[in-house]
Amino acid sequence: MKPQASAPRGPTAESAIVLGEMPGTPDSAADVLIIGGGASGMVAAIRAARLGRRTILVEKSPSLGRKLLASGGQRCNLSNTLDTDQFMERVGREGRFMGPALAELGGPKLREFFHGIGVQTVVLDGFRVWPETRKSATVLAGLMGELERLAVEVVTNCEVQSTVHESTEDGGHFVIRYPLGEFRARQLVIATGGLALPKSGASGGGYAFAESFGHKVTARHPAGVPVVTAEDWPGRCTAHTIGKAHLQVDMKKHAKVARTGDLIFTKSGLRGPVVLDISRELSPLLERYGEVPIVMNLCGGRTQEDWQLLFKEWRTAPVRPVIEWLEEELPLEVAEVICELSDVDPTTLLQKLPGEAKDTLIRTLVKTPLTITGHTGYDGAFVTRGGARLKDVRPETLESKLQPGLYLCGEVLDLDGPCGGFNLQWAFASGYLAGSGLGLAAASEASKKS
């Protein structure tokens, strides 16, 4: 299919004007070319265009923002209410790298940005920021409308094959080749995303582009992904969500890997916010060890001491089987599994439960064992862990330290966060910062010439 250029008018609109051969045509040259029409690339294009840069946005898929449409269950959790320091702390590894981007378009500023393009936002739970409509399509329509207003040239169905920089007396330019020709631009932004959710068009092509300019790319793993267990008992508990479940890796070297949140059992394992969060750490461990033992506290963090006191109260209450007491604290199917794992007959009257059996039951309640053997892969992942190494990118502008005029933003970088709006916030903010950097570089270049 030939690449097409237009300013699309809706979330599923396709381009309408067919471009001819690129070399030598006016449309082939621009100040800025952005590869990748996802959340980060669109915002980078908007910011660059607002700063007066002639911008071309290239996307290999038929339309922009396909992964954005799928985000948050098609509801699009844009961000959250944490302040910058809290946000970076929650991200953990390399979170401080986000500082300059969040200063440009963090939290409140991101909401103002969206309000300015006609997308109203709302906070429903005191934490997550959503579009008021709770529809990803609203967010995409707002971004695309702003691209059109700014006359950003959008080229879809255009898969970039290679990127090089050609040096000239006036500073040089980037040459971006695709099957029918090439583009030329003073500045280049790689905003191609990662490997997660390939049905949205993700392929990880941006990593090769980054490497072609000397960037090192770290090992990549699915993150924000459901996991598979060796045991089959989670399949008996699929009707239930466990609130405030605590999951911890049961390996001495990795015991600090732990998360708390809502847990959902599946036929093959586990999903839910707590699982998606801890999967960021589990994926690399699975590749290294093959399987990862974990322990779970499914009772809101209740300790062994808490359970001892509760059992003491129960012993003075009317006579009832152990399972009936446990069912007051856990779903029946989960309580039955706890009894099985503890080798306790669930019909045993609690008052007749031997002390050793009670202690075993309590230990299992506090640390329910499970073995993680895999995950659902990139098809089920929300984000990619790993990417272009951060040490080679300037955090204050996201310009490459290795190739002047090259910028990297969003998921292509080795930076990801937990669930709850962290990754989309980073995509938007990093795109905006890259766009700002493009404008600063252009202003500096113009000043030198004058």
TrEMBL record:
Domain RsdA/BaiN/AoA(So)-like insert residue range list: 246-383
Occurrences of domain RsdA/BaiN/AoA(So)-like Rossmann fold-like (ranges): 31-436
Record keywords, A-Z: FAD, Flavoprotein
Cofactor(s) needed: FAD
Lineage of the organism: Bacteria, Pseudomonadati, Planctomycetota, Planctomycetia, Planctomycetia incertae sedis
A Pfam short name: HI0933_like_1st
InterPro entries cross-referenced by the UniProt entry: BaiN-like (IPR004792), BaiN-like_dom_sf (IPR023166), FAD/NAD-bd_sf (IPR036188), RsdA/BaiN/AoA(So)-like_dom (IPR055178), RsdA/BaiN/AoA(So)_Rossmann (IPR057661)
Entry protein name: Putative FAD-binding dehydrogenase
SUPFAM superfamilies attached to this UniProt entry: FAD/NAD(P)-binding domain, HI0933 insert domain-like
UniProt key word Kinase: no
